[in-house]
Structures are given as C-alpha cells and as structure tokens.
Amino acid sequence: MLFSSYIYIFSFLPIVVIGYFLSLKWLGSRGAKMWLVAASLFFYAWWKLIYLPLLAGSILFNFMISNLIVKWRKSHVKWSRLLFFFGIFANVILLCTFKYFDFFIQNFNVIFQSNFELLHLLLPLGISFFTLQQIAYLVDSYDLIVKKTSFFDYCLFVSFFPQLIAGPIIHHKQILPQFARDDNKRLNASHIVKGIYIFCIGLAKKVIIADTLAAYANQGFDVASQLDFVSAWLVSFAYLFQLYFDFSGYMDMAIGAALFFNIRLPDNFKSPLRATSIINFWQRWHITLSDFITAYLYFPMVRLFKKITLTKAIFATVMAMTIAGFWHGAAWTFVIFGLYHGIGIGINQFWRKQVNIKIPRFLSWIITITFVDISFIFFRALSLSDAVKVVRGLTGLNGWGVLSSFANARSLFMEMDPAEVVFIMIILLLSAFIALFCKNSIEISEKFQPTFTSVTFACFLFVLSLIFLNKSEVEFIYFNF
Amino acid sequence: MKNRIWLISFVLGSLVFYLLITTVINIVLDPYQEYGWVRKPWNISKFQEDRRTGAIRLIERLNEGHYSLVFGTSRSAYISRETTGKNILNFSNSVSGNPKDVYAVLTQLSDEQLAHIDKIYYLLDRYAFENREDIYSDIQLNAPYSKELESFRNVTRKKWYDSIQMLVRNVSGKHFNTVTEFGDSNLIDKTWTIRSEQELFFPERLKIFNDPESLNALGKLDHFCREKNIEIIYFTGVSHVLYIYNTDFKLLELQFANILDQIDHFYSLLYIEEVSDKTSNFRDWAHHSKELTRYEVSILDDLAKRQRFKITKQNYRQYLSQLKKNIYAYDVYQFIEGGRP
C-alpha cells in the first residue's frame, strides 16, 4: 500500500488511528500495540501476501536469538557469541538470497563462463530496512545495550508501518520508550494537526514534484546516448531533485503518520542539497543510514586497527561507503555509487586534516552539488554503460553547441504535451528553489502554528496532490531497495 | 487558532477547494467537451475527449434514435454525418478497432440500443488489431454518462495539463483539432518515402494478427451480430499505391487468412484503379480526404458495387497476387517529391 494512494489516505490510516486510540481506551496499552502490529502486518501483506511469513519469520527469529544472546551473555559467553554470529549470518543470508543471489550468479556466469540459472526472486518490500534494523538490534543485544523487551514491543519496533518499507532506519531506543510514555497514550490534537500538515507537505513533494520530474528524468535516461551537454545536465538534475523529493516526501509522510500515534520518528533529511562538502552532505542526506553506517560498519572496522591513522580511517570510510552503496541494490552501479562517495568523503577528510585551505562557501557548494549530481547518475542508470553515456553527455562528448543542445532537449519531449513540458520546467525550477532556499520539513515542523495560513496551505497542497494522484499512483523510488 | 478548529477548517477547506477546482476544470474549462455547459472564447477549441467517456457519450445517443456505427482506426475516423449524410456514431477514436473492445461494447448494449443500430462499418486494417489498454471490461458503458463524469476521480493530472494547454491555445488564438471537426485536410506529407524490403517486415504486427484472443473475439462478434440480426460490413480502407507498395505482402496474406478463419468475407477496397494513385485523394501517407471517405462509403452502401471487392477464403490469394501485380506495375517514384534518386 502506497502512502500516496487513496486507499491509504482515506481508509487505512484513519481506521488504524481511530482503532489505536479506541484500543488504548478499551483494551489498554497491550491491546493497542497488538492492533498496531496487526495493522502493520496487514499494510505489509497488502503488497504481497506471500512475503508476510518472511517478515513474520524474520521478526520471530531475531527476537528469539536476541533474547537468548542477552540471557546467555554473562553465563554462557561462548554460546552467546556463537548465537550472535549465527544471527548476523542468518540475516545476511536472507538478504543475500532475495536481493543479491542473482547478482552473484550473473557475475559467476560471466567470470567462469558457466550457465547457472537465475532465481528471479521478487525483492520483498522493505527487506533491506527491516533486516538492517534487526542486525542493529542483535549487535545491541550482544553489547547488552538492549533492555528486556516484550514480543509485541519488538514486533512493533520492527513492523511499525510508517517506517516499515523505506525507513527511516530506527533504533529501538528511539521508538520503544515513546510507546511506553503515559502522555503518548492519549489522542493529542496538536500532534494530529502537525501530522496532517507534515503529511500534506510530503504528499505534495512526492506527487506534484517528484512524479512530475520523473516523466522527464525517465525519458532522458531512456535515450542516454543522445544526451548532449545541456540535456544531460537537465536530466541529471531532474533525477537528483526527483529522488530528493520522492524520498524526503516519503519521510515527511512517514513522520506525519507516526505523529498521529504520538511517535516522533528520527529526522532523515536536513536540506542535503545545500551541503557544502561531501561529509556535510551525508550529515544531511538519509541521516539514519549514515548513523547506522557509522555505528555498525565504520566504528567496528576502525576498532580492528590497533592504531588509527588518517589513512586507515579513510580506508575504513571507503569500505563502509562501498558496502552502503551495495546495500542499495544488487548492481555494479550501486557499488560504484558507494565507492565514489567513499572516495569523496576520504578526500574531504584528507583536505580537512592535511590541506586545510578554506574554499569559499559558494564554490564548495558548487563542487559538492556537482559531485552529488554525478553520483546519482550511477544510482539511477540501469547499467554502467548507461551511466557512462550520461556522463559523456555531461562532459560535452556528445556535443557542446548550446543551440543543438536545446534542439535535442526539445526532441526529448517529443512524446509529451507542450503544457506538460512547460509544467515540468516550472517544477524543476521550483524544486531547486525549495531545496535550496526554503525551510525544510524539520524547520517547518518545529515552527508550526495552527493558523489560517497554515490550514489554507495544507488544503491547497492536499487537494492539488489528490488531483495529481488520480489514476497515476507511482511507487516510491526507495521501495526498490 | 485552536487545533480543533484547524482540523475542521482543513476538512471543510479541502472539500470546498476540491469542488472549486473540479468545477473550474470540468465545467468552466471543460477541455474534452464532456459537459458543454460553458462555451466561451477561452474554451472554444477543445481536445478530443478521452476514449472512455467518448464511448459512453456516443452510446447514450443510441437511446435517442437509429444510427450506423463505425469501428476501426484513424483511417475510418472521418466517416461521419458530414461525409455520408447519414446518422453515424463513429467509435474509431474511442473504442477503436480491436475485436475484443468492440465485442465488449456491443454485448453491453441493451436490446433497445441494439435495435437502433442500422448497420456497422468495421474497418479491419493493419492497426485495427493493436492491443490498446483494456478499458472496456471494467466499466459499465450503459451507466448514465453524467454518473461517470461526476465520479470523484474525474479530474486527473492529464486533464489539468490539457486544461492549461487548451486555455493558452485559445487565448493566443492558436486553435487546434476538436472532436467534431476535420484536421488540416488535403495537405500532402512531402516526406513520403519508399522503404527497403527489410523495413517492411514488422514482427510486432505479425504478433498482433496472431493474437488468438482478438481473433476469437472477432468470431464471437460476428456470431453476436448474426444472432441479433445486425448488418456488419467488414472492410479494408482505400489506400494509396505507395502505401500498398510499402506494405509487406506476406503480412497482408497472414492478416487476410486469420480474418477469414473467423468471418465469411470482407470487402477489400485497398486498391481502386484511378483512385489509389491520385495523391489528392489522401490527406497524408495513410489517411483519406473527405471526398475519398464519401466515395468509400458509397461503395460499401451499394450491395452491387461492393461485390466486386468481396474477399473470401477461396479468392484471397488470387486477389493478393493480382494486387501485387497492379502495384508493382507503377513507377512508384512518381509519387515522391524529386522523383527517382
């Protein structure tokens, strides 16, 4: 079920919210949690019922393993360690089977000229996210950071529907205490109102901006070899903004929906396209993933070194980012994406520690946005050769002439209505303006006041989004990961 | 403002805003001529209505009186009251010509509506079997047109774009084709070319003519019309010599054979001497002028005349062989601007 669908907005979400608070009133906290877990599993099963046992099995398995780890951590240290590694291994195997198996087979076939058949398994929705969250939970169980958690609390932590499919990647310490707080067990009108406001902003970001830009970006990537200088830059920026508004729109909707239950999900975006360095970019983009990489990949790697040096730290960064890139998808394009960012952060670290020359802020921003824009070409392209084609266009190898570029850019729109083309260009400029100069959702949320202006703005965004949504519900990009 | 008031304002405000925007797009602008309540300079020229509502609207007319129906492609889209002098409901733009769609539409008509059908002209050209989005199996075509329009989801992103485009074009005086008018007719596309043998062979078209579901639907449709005593005239449209020259004859033979497996006969008007070689008879590479459309229908309406063009299982191979001879006798370069290269 998509957040940006009629069934979710007008049926699922209101029913679950009402049911939750009625359950709290009549059945108590435990009953309300059961209701929310059931609703979350229903939400997941809506996509494909057959994968519900996979999610349920993963939850049950990890809950049992983590409980045993905690139980035996002091009395049976060896068993506890064995269980810990077994748990991690099982999660990685699950992820590899569904997400990476065909990738490995394909590469094996190419290298060894063999002909092993591919499984062609459909990627279970959200598997990367719920597996990652549970791996973190296992690590925390082993480190005895986890407190005793009931089964329903654990289920809720993993399956809570606003974050189940595409994050934000939550830590148990961020969520479970919130469900336990007494003042969160009452319907809070200010949270509902703020939730609606944030949800409307997210919906508009997704439906009006991201889905509109998608039409142009998709068409551009389909004719990658024909893109010359102007077209290639237009297409690459259209995709960058599409991805940003798609993903951050999803996050806003998730944060808005969670607020209805008095739950504050962690922030995931802080105006990342305003970043003035690559390190700064990752402090603003998909923040919960960055935190996870730092805590569960980078630091453990650094700890392996006896003495930490800048070179070793950079090496760990590059490795961690490459793995993070590969986590996004089973393709070499994602490996390149991660490696590219790892190298970028490495250079950034080196510059800060060794060179330490201040670059003017505007120039830093130009370098960063260009670097990021190029990286997302690899993120979007279906193959390395497609990505290279677009990069060739960016460098002018497919033609420099501004006039011919405009002619080509126009030819890209051949299949589109002229009004749609004008609208897309307006949206592209508007999206750049919003991303670079307007308050982000976190700032808006912090300063939100229930005023006439805010309600008018929310109505406007909501109705316009509903119209754009009619007969054109489009999946979120991060659903593929 | 209190939170509760904000919440109520949001619900009511959204409703009002939705009604307002729906009214402006549907009634004031009305880009597809669905309502026709407001006709002002800003919306005088409109877009062709969308396929589904177009079909529903035409079907409603069958409640009012007797009509002949036309199914087919853009090549039959100009059979109208203007060209024939008869009451015509032309479904070429809405339902088009895939037998699955045509069958779905005809079987949804009431007995009264079926009794109001004078005859059916059904163009079976190479594009008629194209599988377009299946839009007729999940709607009630006989539902009142107004109900369909009043549905909550009637205003879409596309309609929004089209409204703006329509507004801009009308205000700037740049008018364009409407549902009821002819296009820029009698303009010959100067880019007519002679294609190479390799280009003639369209594997995807072969697939279309082998689609068992469409073929099966054609048989069922024919049976349905016989059962309901409705005259149905299957035909292929008059074509320019160059168009036939560029046609793959192997493909044409397959098309004829498949069609004749399902129905007894059809009328092939593909080539008519001293008509098919007159460029002025055609608007472009594939489409007829008004005069040619009128001439085509006059043949189909005259039982004696059309016998000459009757194609059956017994004579189709011979017909195609003769057609090839006739076409290859032409110096086709005479039709190309600049002549032989």
Characterize the structure shown.
Chain A is mostly helical and 481 residues long. Chain A has helices at 6-26, 28-47, 52-72, 77-112, 127-142, 151-159, 161-164, 172-180, 189-222, 229-260, 278-284, 287-304, 310-328, 332-355, 361-380, 384-395, 402-412, 418-437, 441-446, 452-469. In chain A, helix 2 crosses helix 6, helix 3 runs parallel beside helix 5 (127-142) and helix 10 (229-260) crosses helix 16 (384-395). By secondary structure, chain B is α/β, with parallel strands linked by helices. Chain B has a six-stranded mixed β-sheet. In chain B, helix 4 runs parallel beside helix 10, helix 10 (212-227) crosses helix 12 (249-262) and helix 12 (249-262) packs antiparallel against helix 15. The longest helix of chain B has 27 residues, at 3-29. The relative contact order of chain B is 0.12. At the A-B interface, helix 9, helix 18 and helix 20 of A face helix 1 and helix 7 of B.
List the main descriptive attributes of the protein structure presented here.
heterodimer, A: 481 residues, mainly alpha, 74% helix, B: 341 residues, alpha/beta, six-stranded mixed beta sheet, 15 helices, 6 strands, 8% strand
Summarize the structure.
The complex is a heterodimer of chains A (481) and B (341). With 481 residues, chain A is an all-alpha fold. Chain A is built from 20 helices and no strands.
The biggest beta sheet of chain A is recorded as: none
Could you estimate the helical fraction of the residues of chain B in percent? Answer: 40-55%
The major beta sheet of chain B can be summarized as: 6 strands, mixed
Described by the principal axes of the CA atoms, the overall outline of chain B is: globular
Determine the most extensive contact between two protein chains: A-B, 30 and 25 residues
Number of strands of chain A: 0
Number of strands of chain B: 6
Helix content of chain A: over 70%
Computed CA radius of gyration of chain A, to the nearest angstrom: 23 Å
* SSE ordering of chain A: HHHHHHHHHHHHHHHHHHHH
Strand content bin of chain A: under 5%
Helix-strand sequence of chain B: HHEHEHHEHHHHHEHHEHHEH
Proportion of residues in β-strands of chain B: 5-15%
The helix/strand class of chain B is: alpha/beta
Structural class by secondary-structure content of chain A: mainly alpha
Overall pLDDT of chain B, averaged? 79
